[in-house]
Amino acid sequence: MSVLGIGDSHDSGAALISNGIPEGAVNEERFTKRKNEVGFPGNSIRYLQGRSGSDVQAVALAWIGGNALISRLVPSWDQKRRSMWRKEVPKQSRLGMHASNLVYKLIQNQRPRSLWKFVGSGISKTVTARRLQRISGELSGKKIYMVEHHLAHASSAYYPSGFKEALIITLDGAGDGLSGTVSIGDNGSIERIAEFDASASLGIFYGAATVACDMRYSEDEGKLMSLAAYSYPKRIPELGDICSYDKASRKLVSRTGTRNELLLGEYMRDHILSRNDRESFAYAVQEHVSDQVVGIVRQWVRETGIHNVALSGGFFSNVITNMLVEQMPEVKRLFVFPQMGDGGIPFGAAAYVDFMLNGRFSKEQISDIYFGPSYTNSEIAESLKAAKRRGITYEELKDPARYGAELIANNRILLWFQGGMEYGPRALGNRSVLALPSDSENRNRINLTIKERPYYQPFASSVLDGEAKRLFSDYLSQNKFMTGANHVRDAHYGKMVAASHVDHTTRPQILGRENRLYYELIENVKKRTGTGALLNTSLNKHGKPMVMSPEDALWTLENTGADTLIMGNYIIKKR
After folding, report:
1. Rounded to 5 degrees, what are φ and ψ at 14?
2. Residue 293: CB partners within 8 Å, gap ≥ 6?
3. What gap in Å lies between CA 457 and CA 460, rounded to an integer?
4. From the DSSP assignment, how many helices (H) and strands (E) are in the chain?
5. pLDDT digit of tens for each residue in the chain (575 aa)?
6. pTM, full prediction
């Protein structure tokens, strides 16, 4: 028996967990091809039903009230808001922003919490039950458990971490009236010991700073983090007035007042960015949020005496902050859930309800997150036959890893499609664009032909576990999921230049035998080049979600400047 977890706001998706073991997890964007899809994840649920060998015992619905309740009832409202964030539609006028902010102030902290929970739970269960019934009669009548937003985040951090006891910290924009929590995980139970009101949010602060730099909220925060590395050290004291951690009250506080993300972005642009260049502004913002998070972790590690730390929530896509937390002397071991944003809350909700019902959780950290669809060679062959009419040529390979390594060693850009699709935003060797990390021009080649990213945004790396200590000066543990960063040793920077940033950091996937074929590919590259590492970025065209199916991979090959794809046991080229 398994628990079906559902997230039906932005970046909607579903997950299945049985007795502490993930059976599958996927996000709706991969099916609809609309990034950060909003609404009920019908395609995701159907896929998981077809994959699972067990019956659904119960349903865990993440996020109870607030924006999620509105989105649940009127998905078009959240879709429009998302389109505004992505600059697909014009943003509100300044007057409109102020009018929206009045409503925002009233509902942001969701007081009284008990009323929001009562109203949200009743409506949400009724609406969800009807939608599940339309998908499958097998899901009709299943008991629905509501899981509060940050409890779902905390569960996603704790249950897959492998920690029996953990300090769990969640931080994001906002959810169910909160922007973050501190909890203790102990032998499967989760006890919340602190919470931060949504009216002071490091997630909204960082997103608004992204907006101030004329980037997209809830999507381009990684660009702001990358831009920060191009500045000299800079402090802007006024940033602390907008959001900072107060150790005495154990709260995130704001002295400038509550503003929604777009209005706060306008305020930061007019009052702070206008007196600084973009790079130094980005540096100061990154420095400020990292200081706040390190302060939160330090205080609660000392108060609880717990040195294993588990993190989740959209803020923790910030790999530089995660790197600083891992390097803290107070932290013994760190785990960041790979699908840390709201796309991961169905996983956390399912994990929480599964433990509540069955009392089991794994004492082992998850070894991989290839939870999505996989395709046999015969299924791939059928897609190739259809594509042949469009000028695609292909042939079967006896050893894809060896052949792919030869192409990469000869400095070719390779699209690589294998096995189960990754869960979350990071390509981990099954849906990847690969290249030699030693040629700095490979960044430009991939940007010009496929990704179309800003010059200052670096690409990530995949590194064999046996190479990590040699290549990185600050290596502490095997991070399999690209959730942190490491500094490349000066002596080896030339070997990693295309997969590193200007500050000599890289966001590595440190690969073990959990992905045998990908490991063999990089081993073969090492035999030819001397370095067991690759530049690795997600297999998708700019603005599109990571590819899911053979048809998606072929579309990417045909609609970008790429010319070679290895998919399953086939090498595919376009004329």
Report:
1. -150, 160
2. 171, 202, 315, 321, 324, 325
3. 10
4. 21, 22
5. 899 999 998 899 999 999 999 999 999 999 999 999 999 999 999 999 988 777 999 999 998 877 778 788 888 888 888 888 888 888 888 888 888 888 888 888 888 888 888 888 999 999 999 999 999 888 989 999 999 999 999 999 999 999 999 999 999 999 999 999 999 999 999 999 999 999 999 999 999 999 999 999 999 999 999 999 999 999 999 999 999 999 999 999 999 988 999 999 999 999 999 999 999 999 999 999 999 999 999 999 999 999 999 999 999 999 999 999 999 999 999 999 999 999 999 999 999 999 999 998 888 999 999 999 999 999 999 999 988 888 899 999 999 999 999 999 999 999 999 999 999 999 999 999 999 999 999 999 999 999 988 989 999 999 999 999 999 999 999 999 999 999 999 999 999 999 999 999 999 999 999 999 999 999 999 999 999 999 999 999 988 999 999 999 999 999 999 999 999 999 999 97
6. 0.96
Biggest distance spanned by C-alpha atoms of the chain: 68
Query: Hey, what's the torsion of the CAs at 52, 160, 163, 512, to 10 degrees?
Result: 100
Q: Which residues pair with 309 in a beta bridge?
A: 167, 334
Strands of 21-27's sheet in order across: 21-27, 13-18, 2-7, 56-62, 144-147
Which value, to the nearest 10 degrees, does the dihedral of the CA atoms of residues 267, 270, 274, 278 take? 40
What token pair was written down for 233? 């050290």
Domains observed in the chain: 2-358 (3.30.420.40), 377-574 (3.90.870.20)
CA distance 529 to 12: 42
- Report the distance separating Cα 157 and Cα 64, nearest Å: 19
Residue found under tokens 């985040």:
153
